[in-house]
Design a protein that fits this description.
The protein is about 85% helix and about 0% strand. The longest helix is centred in the first third of the chain and has 40 residues. The chain has twelve helices and no strands. The protein is globular, with a radius of gyration of 27 Å.
């Protein structure tokens, strides 16, 4: 009996009781599950951000608009421009996610005001494209005269902002970033999830815009014209909806 008590005492001194030895394996499993959980939360965040941003950015619906605005450019230049638009979109989404809330607070600008201003710009661009006359492709003669400097001048405005990443996408990214945790560990995973999700959205933009001419070849000129008109009309409707969302939020704040 004394020998058994001495053995248990030595086990306790070393930090391992007989009960601890029985529960070593389950506790190790629980610890491994807790270590895997942040990765699962990061994967959920990636799916959430992509599912929230992709329908608003809508690169598939924006590809006819991109092709109409770059009709005179060679295919190689169009792909380079699509890559630039995708990179600009990636930077805009990440900046909106990480520092968008702080910038708005610094200048005293609310998200409804951003929605009103951005909605007006989207309506203006959509209306201009809706009223524009269809131009027949002018061929290599015009493409040889295209100045690369003028091409990349339009990469940010209007091709990236507001046609691709507009106020709806920016406000959504700001909202998602404002709801993320601000502790060091979870915040690093949230930033990583935002980077991966924004990269996936940017990749879809490059694929849809860079190969919009092949999509047009499959659909045909008349089909692309119809899609362009519908996309322009939807762009006007989206701008009105964004404008109304911001205006209604401002009106509610006035009544309160």
């Amino acid at each position: 009996m004394q020998h058994l008590q001495k053995t248990q005492g030595v086990a306790r001194v070393r930090g391992h009781s007989p009960l601890d030895q029985k529960t070593d394996k389950p506790s190790a499993r629980l610890y491994s599950l807790l270590q895997e959980r942040p990765l699962l939360e990061a994967a959920k965040s990636i799916v959430l951000i992509v599912s929230a941003l992709f329908p608003i950015v809508n690169p598939i619906g924006g590809s006819p608009v991109f092709l109409a605005l770059t009709r005179e450019y060679p295919a190689s230049t169009r792909r380079i421009l699509a890559r630039q638009v995708a990179m600009n979109s990636f930077v805009l989404l990440i900046a909106s996610f990480l520092v968008g809330t702080h910038i708005l607070h610094f200048f005293g600008i609310s998200i409804p005001v951003v929605q009103v201003g951005g909605g007006l710009i989207v309506i203006s661009n959509g209306w201009t494209m809706l009223k524009s006359k269809e131009e027949v492709d002018r061929g290599p003669e015009v493409q040889r005269k295209v100045n690369p400097t003028d091409v990349f001048r339009s990469a940010f405005y209007p091709l990236t902002l507001p046609l691709t990443v507009g106020p709806g996408s920016i406000s959504m990214a700001i909202t998602l970033g404002a709801n993320e945790p601000h502790h060091l560990g979870p915040n690093v995973l949230a930033i990583l999830a935002a980077v991966i999700a924004s990269a996936l959205v940017a990749m879809s933009i490059f694929l849809c815009y860079g190969f919009a001419d092949r999509l047009a070849a499959i659909i045909g000129e008349s089909g692309m014209g119809i899609i362009l008109r519908l996309s322009s009309f939807l762009l006007v409707c989206i701008g009105v909806q964004i404008l109304w969302n911001g205006a209604s939020a401002l009106l509610k704040s006035v009544h309160m």
